[in-house]
Design a protein that fits this description.
Length: 278
């Protein structure tokens, strides 16, 4: 197993980063998680485009060109010991001589990448659905950037775990934003509803796939603001991400979602389309 660090490939125990790295001291960096199916990176170009958006948002020059990243990711996906993987990639603003919030004059970014086996959710979660809690979205106002400053997301996810649930659904000012590490969809009266991509949520790659599949298969869908009341009154509620794919949420804060408290018929269709497509 090899870890990518600044263009070199090293055994994990030899891949070291300075304690003065701004990623470590300030969470000053960005990341991506890229799913790999049968050693083939899924939606690689979209992930790398989003990586560039995050880098631009934190004013950090990309240490590599897009085609170089494509090569690195493809090489890693090809040589890892698992067919299905998730590739983790991060770029931080690198080490500083003394601790100082302001950017170093000649920042030398630190790039790190490694593969892990893909941990797809157990079939039971898909078949029976999962439980979620809700919380106020306490994050900053640039949630469109995939930064490594994930403390708020970690605290929010832990609320779910503490309650024996899988995900925390977030509301800001009465509107649905997303999950602590996932995008959220609502189904009402046969229509798939998705929140608008803006600075309050991550532009999810899986979110895009779900909407593309809806369009392709003629499933009515709307991208618009979704209120907390609409979320709680949903017929179906889904979460999705690169590692979880699509999962049905059947309980929210202890209340049953929709009629049955079981995964809904629209979810079943979307799940099948996703499996066929990926
Ligand atoms: N998280 N929203 C947030 C806050 C996320 O962290 C993620 C993914 C998503 C879904 O994005 P995508 O479909 O592009 O994976 C939405 C990754 C998987 C993670 O942090 O591990």
């Amino acid at each position: 197993r090899r870890v990518f660090i600044d263009g070199a490939w090293l055994p994990p125990e030899a891949a070291n980063v300075s304690v003065m790295d701004r990623g470590f001291l300030f969470g000053d960096g960005i990341y991506e998680v890229i799913p790999v199916y049968s050693r083939r990176p899924f939606r690689l170009e979209q992930h790398l485009t989003r990586m560039q958006h995050s880098l631009d948002g934190i004013r950090l020059a990309n240490p590599f060109r897009l085609d170089e990243w494509m090569g690195f990711v493809t090489q890693l996906a090809g040589e890892a010991e698992w067919d299905d993987q998730s590739i983790y990639l991060q770029v931080t603003r690198g080490p500083m001589a003394v601790r100082n919030h302001a950017f170093p004059k000649d920042a030398r970014p630190t790039s790190v990448m490694f593969a892990e086996p893909m941990s797809t959710p157990p079939a039971s979660q898909r078949e029976q659905g999962i439980a979620a809690v809700s919380a106020a979205d306490i994050r900053w106002l640039r949630c469109d950037l995939k930064t490594t400053s994930l403390l708020a997301n970690c605290l929010l996810r832990q609320l779910a775990v503490d309650a024996g649930c899988v995900e925390t659904v977030l509301f800001r000012d009465g509107f649905l934003t997303e999950g602590s590490a996932s995008s959220i969809f609502v189904v009402k009266d046969g229509v798939l509803l998705a929140p608008i991509k803006n600075h309050l949520m991550l532009p999810g790659i899986t979110y895009d796939v779900v909407l593309e599949l809806a369009a392709q298969h003629g499933l009515p869908h709307e991208v618009r603001d979704i209120t907390e009341a609409e979320t709680r009154g949903a017929d179906e509620l889904w979460m999705c991400s690169s590692t979880k794919e699509v999962l049905p949420i059947v309980r929210l804060d202890g209340a049953t979602v929709g009629a049955g408290g079981t995964p809904g018929p629209v979810f079943a269709r979307m799940y099948a389309w996703y499996q066929e497509f990926k």
